[in-house]
Structures are given as structure tokens and as C-alpha cells.
Design brief:
The protein is of the alpha/beta class and 268 residues long. It has one domain: Rossmann fold. Helix content is 36%, strand content 18%. The chain is built from nine helices and ten strands. The strands form two sheets. An eight-stranded mixed sheet has the order 3-4-2-5-1-6-7-10, sandwiched between helices. The protein has a two-stranded antiparallel ribbon with strand order 8-9. Helix 5 links the parallel strand 6 and strand 7. Helix 1 packs across helix 9 and helix 3 runs parallel beside helix 4.
Length: 268
Amino acid sequence: MGPPVARLSIPGVDYMLAVASGKGGVGKSTTAVNLAVALAQNHNLSVGLMDADVFGPSVPRMMNLSGRPKATEDHKMIPLENFGVRCMSMGFLLQDDAAAVWRGPMVMSALESFMKKVAWGNLNVLVIDMPPGTGDAQITISQRLPITGAVMISTPQDIALIDARKGATMFRNVKVPILGLVENMSYYQCPSCGHQEHIFGDGGAKRTAQEMQMELLGQIPLHISIRETSDAGAPIVASNPGSPSAQAYSKLADRVWEKLQMARPNPG
């Protein structure tokens, strides 16, 4: 991994939580958004959400936010806010449907700006929606920020769990504690009879967590309402808090907050 890299502190932020996945398409951003909203609304915390997925920013759509951030007198960007969560995303800085066609150094520069040039204010938790995979961007963020812990997101398929293992190994190599694994799309529950069907397999995430010495933090069901509320910019934990899907996210937030508090708060 090379020589040690000096970590940046973000003043006023108690805990930094990375939400990551070894591959795309496993519901990482949806989990990050609902986790952030649940922490803010259920636990009355000051929460920020950093959308570090420069190439595929989805936080603006999921959080129903648009427009360019305003700036402070010292030229820092002011996060946009909804559902009690302060958000920053490359999607706020690009025109609609514009693609970020950048090479590595430009990506690193954008991520550095999110770390150093955003007026986050005082936060109990800064949730970082990591880019999928284990490349330069992921390693840079993990080395540059004092991340309290990482949560790995996977679906039950073996191929997704293989990539989740790779992601967990990356975090361990850069000395970032892993809080645990979340199994997304864990099962389909029939809305009529309540029967649960494990469409993508059963038991794989639990076995992977045990083998990798991680906690299985939660299992999120496969339900159309999660997709619909995410597309509509109304996270299910806010728009339908009594639903089984929202309750699954809320239980996940409860456990994540417990584990964060076991760690030492970030300096600054």
C-alpha cells in the first residue's frame, strides 16, 4: 500500500462511517441514504452524507436535492440538506445527465475538495457513500480520512460475496476497522401471506461474515417499495417508517450507532 499517508481531519465531525461495496449494483447508495436518514431521525443526530461516487452520484436523486451549493465567506461549499441530513455530491456540481469523464488525478482532486472544502459544521456522524470497488479512489479516501469504521454491502449471491471479501481486505490493509456486513436483497417477503423466499440464495452472507470475522449487521429485504421511494427521492425510512423495509434499515442504524460509539471519536 506504500508509505503511510497523513490523514485529514474534518473539524466538528465525531465519527466517519464508510458505506462500501466490492462491486456496483448491490444497493450500496440506497443503504447509505436510508442509514443516514435513520441515524438523523431515529437517533436525533447531526448527520452528513458525502457522495464520494464521482462517476455515478445518486445521492441528489435519492435525497430529492438539486442546485449548486452556496459558499461561505472563506469559500467553502455549504451542503444541501433534506430529511435532516447535510449532503454533498458531485451531482450538485454537474449539469443534468452530464458525465464526469475524468482521469485519476481529477477524481482525486474532486475527492480532496469534498474532504477539505466543504463546510460540514458539527456532525455526530459523517456517512461516506464510497465508490464501488477497490481502486485508487477507495484507497485514497480510506487513507486520507480518519474513518471510524466501514460497513460492507453485499447481496446473497456468491459472486457478490467474493467481491465483498475483497473490499473488506482492502479496508483492513489500510487499517480501517470493519463494523460488519449488510446483506441487501436478502429475501423476498410476499405482501399477501408473509412467506419469505430467498431468491438470491440463503446463508451466504452469514457464512462469509463468520469466515471474515465480521458481524452480520442486518438483512434488508428485496421489496419494490425500496426502489420506488429511492427513485422518488423519499427514502423509505422517512416516507414509510412503519414498513418492514424501513424497520430493517432502522435496526441496522441502531446497531451501527452502537458500534460507532464503541470507537474513539475522531480528533477535531
